[in-house]
Amino acid sequence: MTNRRLWVFLAVTVGATFLLLGFFGREVYRQAPPIPSAVVTPDGRTLFTEDDILTGQQVYQSIGGQQVGTVWGHGAYVAPDWSADQLHREATGLLERWAKAEGSTYDALPPERQAGLRERVKRELRTNTHDAASGRITVSADRAAVMAEVAAHYDAIFGDSTDPAVLKLRDAYAIHDTAIPDAERRSKLTAFYWWASWSCATQRPDSTVTYTNNWPHEPLIGNVPTTANLLWSLISIVVLLAAIGGLVYWMAYHHDEETLKAPERDPLDGFVLTPSMKVTLIYGATVIGLFLAQIVLGIITAHYGVEGRAFYGYDLSSWLPYSVTRTWHIQLGIFWIATAFLAAGLFLAPVVGGREPRFQAAGVWFLLVALVVIVVGSLAGEWASIMQRMGLDAGFWFGHQGYEYVDLGRFWQLFLIVGLVLWLGLMLRGLWPALTAPVAPDDVEGSNRKQLLILFVGSSVAIALFYGAGLFYGARTHMSVMEYWRWWVVHLWVEGFFEVFATVAISFIFTRLGLVSAKSATRAVLFATAIFLLGGIPGTFHHLYFSGTPVSIMAIGATFSALEVVPLVMIGFEAWKNQQIGLAAPWAAAYRWPIACFLAVAFWNLVGAGIFGFLINPPIALYYLQGLNTTPVHAHSALFGVYGMLSIGMMLFIFRRATAGKEWKDGVLKFAFWSLNIGLGLMVLMSLLPVGLWQAHESIEVGLWSARSAEFMQQDAMVTLRWLRVVGDTIFAAGGAALAWFTLGLWTGWSIKRT
User: Which residue, among 313, 262, 56, 233, has the nearest Cα to 620 in the 3D structure?
Assistant: First the structure.
């Protein structure tokens, strides 16, 4: 396939898939579960209003939102899924109330009478009483009474109750004492939780399926997988198999093989580091520092899962609760990986452009200072919000937005977007000479270099601009709509265009080293990018199967996201091939560890993003697994395994060029590399995956509420499995410390061999 056809393929893919994403995004808006103007009883008593629900949503955001349990399966995994928990408590509360009216308890009733009450509770909760004209939802007096009981339960958990049973639950949920001091805020929060569970239980008008496609699994009210769920799951598997077959065919019959003789010496040896390139070394040190901080917070966060509110007996939660440490752990992961990507782009720009633009170093320094301010300011704001030191509106702007991966306050989000645009400007200044340089008509290699450069610029523009998708929702935006735009950031920005940027950046490095021809690299990147975005852009919908979206979202998401695994196989093959080429050049041994990191990226791309990603991808799988520890299996192995190892590899490449001509003492670096990868593997295989699979069994057999309950998660065997994470975490942390020690040694000299 020629470059021209590949460009057409890429352009059509991007245009058509964004059209799909936008068109069906309209359906998310149009068919989102209604937020009632009021919830009332048959006698006209108002239980709460639309404003109460939306204010409750803001309270939810202020305490960390998705960092304190989950709603609709999205968020943290220590506390319950509040929508599933509310639903189950409401159903069992009604059963007990009706049994008591018959002078018995539900368990003591004969089976046939229990069946009759289950059918009654199913009708009670699944029947849609929303009146479109008035906007009101009417609930029975019995249901209103049970709703009040559930609300009192949540009020005790988030309030100042000293009841031993409540304290035990707080430990199990890792929720600090008096998490919400204001009683009115607690009342609004319970209204929001009720509405979220109402969406899970209530059938759409003229349908037998609930607003969340019968999620979560709750046999008491007939929440079981839909026919569409099973059908589109089967289709996704068939699409995956067909796509892998197509890739095998292409690799066997249409994949260009080239014989390229490696240069006798490093082509970059003649390029002297410019002032702005030297500043990126400080970026590298910042990356390592943030990485270490993330590791420490990860250890504390994981420990809260087994000891509740304490850290080896010390009451840490009173000033550093779980919701804070998990927020910071995730945010620091995004920050250090993004900083590494920015540094790599700024380092490569003068190399590609061939010169240093005026004041470029000052701009790079200014950007670094801005990034540090954003990191420190946003983390401080998140702490203040969770500790209830801010008003609700101020908290959203300067504290905590409440949504995973985009937790930072809106002000800091805007500040970061400005920083990304500044980075893009610095990149374009550095690349401009190469972009505007003429290419002779018969210069095939030069033409391919220009095309690769255009891809590099395009991916840089996407990184700078697509983070802005997080601005399309506000504090009181409907949850379904918010999830749609949030996944534009998490899936498209992080998992999509970061992946494209990484693929292009690695290709740039190998072409500049003379280990891969520009022609081969350009074709490989064009094809991989087109295939990846073909599945990745509409595949965004696979995160939204059960977020109050119609079945069309499930159909598009399941079909296209199955394709995301395919290019990951090809990227792995390209990485292996490039390593083999690199080994053929003696001087390339100096890049052994950056190349090893790139090869690790290929491994984790296939295992973490591909295999573990597809484990939770088909609708039938995610129906039972959403909100369980199978999700962090994918998250950890993909986010660190792919983007973390890639970031470390790019930093090592920068460090290697900064110490050109000097031989490294790489024993510590070798230990760091293997410890990080082995530690990550053990973390997943010894703890996260077994816990997730056990939860999956419980979710299938009983229901999601049980798989996330304190009773299930605090079993002795389950606690042991969670403690086993210490093995992988310790090895991983040792690897992080070794990497920091090696990096420090490049400055002090102990990581450099004496000549």
Answer: 233
Q: How far apart are the first and last CA of the chain?
A: 50
Q: Cα dist. 178→59, 167, 189 in Å?
A: 14, 11, 14
pLDDT for position 241 = 87
Which contiguous run of DSSP H or E holds residue 38? strand 38-40
Measuring CA to CA, which residue among 340, 248, 223, 236 is closest to residue 286?
A: 340
The pTM for the full model equals: 0.94
- In terms of Cβ atoms closer than 10 Å to its own Cβ (0-12, 13-18, 19+), residue 129 is middle
Report how far residue 359's alpha carbon sits from residue 454's, in angstroms, rounded to the nearest whole number. 24
The answer to whether 679 and 732 have CB atoms below 8 angstroms apart is yes
Q: How far is CA 482 from CA 74, 485, 715, in A?
A: 12, 5, 35
Q: How far apart are CA 636 and CA 536, in angstroms?
A: 19
* Bridge partners, 408 (sequence order): 400
d(CA 41, CA 172): 35
- Identify which of 630, 606, 604, 605 has the alpha carbon closest to the alpha carbon of residue 617: 630
Residues 6+ apart with CB under 8 A from 731: 675, 678, 679, 682
Nearest to 75 by CA among 620, 482, 550, 492: 482
Structure-block tokens of residue 402: 């409440």
Q: Report the C-alpha gap between 543 and 558 in whole angstroms.
A: 10
CB 17 within 8 A of CB 534: yes
**Residue 320: what residue type?**
L
How does DSSP classify residue 495? I
Q: What is the dihedral of CA 384, 385, 390, 393, to 10 degrees?
A: 150
The tokens describing 563, both together, are: 């394709």
Q: Is 369 exposed, middle or buried (0-12, 13-18, 19+ CB in 10 A)?
A: exposed
- Do the strands 38-40 and 46-49 form a parallel or antiparallel pair, or are they unpaired? antiparallel
Split at pLDDT 50, 70, 90, the class of 576 is low
Nearest-CA neighbor of 39 among 153, 119, 137?
137
> How far, in Å, CA of 193 to CA of 186, rounded?
11
- DSSP class of residue 49 equals E
- What tens digit of pLDDT does each residue of 117-157 get? 999 999 999 999 999 999 999 999 999 999 999 999 999 99
Distance CA 456, CA 182 (A): 51
Distance CA 557, CA 61 (A): 27
| Beta-carbon-side half-sphere exposure of residue 133 (alpha carbons within 13 Å) | 0
Confidence band of 495 (pLDDT split at 50, 70, 90):
confident
Sign of the CA dihedral with 320 first, then 323, 328, and 330 last: positive
| Contact of 261 with 303, CB cutoff 8 Å | no
Share in percent of the chain as helix, strand, coil (round to 5): 75, 5, 25
Sheet holding 38-40, edge to edge: 46-49, 38-40, 136-138
Q: How far apart are CA 513 and CA 267, in angstroms?
A: 6
Q: What is the dihedral of CA 405, 633, 316, 314, to 10 degrees?
A: -170
Distance CA 298, CA 434 (A): 42
CB-CB neighbours of 285 under 10 Å: 16
C-beta of residue 381 within 8 angstroms of C-beta of residue 314: no
- Compute the average pLDDT of residues 313-334: 93
Residues belonging to the chain: 755
Q: How many CB atoms are located within 10 Å of the residue 234 CB?
A: 13
Q: How far apart are CA 211 and CA 336, in angstroms?
A: 38
Average pLDDT estimate for 540-567: 90
Query: What distance in Å separates the CA atoms of residue 725 and residue 679, rounded to the nearest whole number?
Result: 9
CA atoms within 13 A on the CB side of 233: 18
Closest CA to 571 of 542, 617, 610: 610
